[in-house]
Amino acid sequence: MTPIKNQGQCGSCWAFSATEAIESQLALKGGDEYSIELSPQQITSCTPSTGTYGSDGCNGGFTEGAYEYVKSAPGLTNSFNIGYEQSLTASSTTVACKKFKSQIDSMAGADAQLSGGYAQVSGYTYATPACTSGACASQDLKKLAAALEETPVSVCVNAGAWNDYTGGVMSSAQCGSMAADMQDHCVMATGFNTTAPTPYWIVRNSWASTWGEKGYIYLEYDKNTCGLADDATIPTVSLNLTPEQEAKAAVSRDAMFHQATGGLYKTLV
Fold first, then answer.
1. Can you tell me whether residue 32 is helix, strand or coil?
2. Which of 78, 81, 136, 185 is an active site residue?
3. Does the annotation count 175 as an active-site position?
4. CATH 3.90.70.10 residue ranges in the chain?
């Protein structure tokens, strides 16, 4: 995973959630060489308002719509090529996509490498069947947990009680409704801890690292707390590696795993 981000006073959580999910898939496929920060601004500004998952920039959107946009574009560029321009301190109008036309076009054609790293998306899947209506009290949490053993997952939640969160495990009762129509924020589930006194899901937010548990929130496990299993998606990233590149990526993934676990686990060969 890349470092914690800050969406500021723009309702672009859906774009950040989708971007972070794409970043993780890129790194999982390509190793450390492809662990780069991508551009949530491109998704915020350029995802169309039409279609089943039409989005509206700083006024909200859908991660599915973000994936569909990137699938139709030359790719999702890096955050250096298109940086985040929405205000971190005051509400602002969504920056128009046309401002970034040259940067987006630069990902295609003979000079593509000059734009720096970028990602291409071919689609997405659901970690567990989505709940699009009703109370969503019977989501398949085992499937979500199984997915999280392999990859971070984009999730959309009811975050109405999150403003006052400072740390610890938020219970399902504290979070409130898990119903589909209560989803108002998209984030990223990154794992779970079932050995803690109060087991919890580990969820990454986009409200800066000064919020919560260094940018994360812990949600009560064994329940669809805050509705985190209502809309859990995993983008499919296209990365055509040669056999030599794949071998290099495999070594890099192993090194990243050892770093992430503090060297506590060893690969069996």
1. helix
2. 185
3. no
4. 1-122+237-253, 128-231
Task: Reply yes or no on whether 13 is catalytic.
Answer: yes
Per the CATH hierarchy, to which homologous superfamily does domain 128-231 belong? Cysteine proteinases (3.90.70.10)
Task: Please identify which residue in the block is written with the tokens 């492809």.
Answer: 34
What class, spelled out in words, does domain 1-122+237-253 have in CATH? alpha beta
Candidates 10, 13, 58, 186; catalytic one: 13
Of the candidates 175, 205, 224, 226, the residue annotated as catalytic is 205
136 is catalytic: no
Give the pLDDT score at 256. 78
128-149 tens-digit pLDDT: 999 999 999 999 999 999 999 9
Half-sphere exposure of residue 212, counting CA atoms within 13 Å on the CB side?
24
Distance CA 19, CA 44 (A): 10
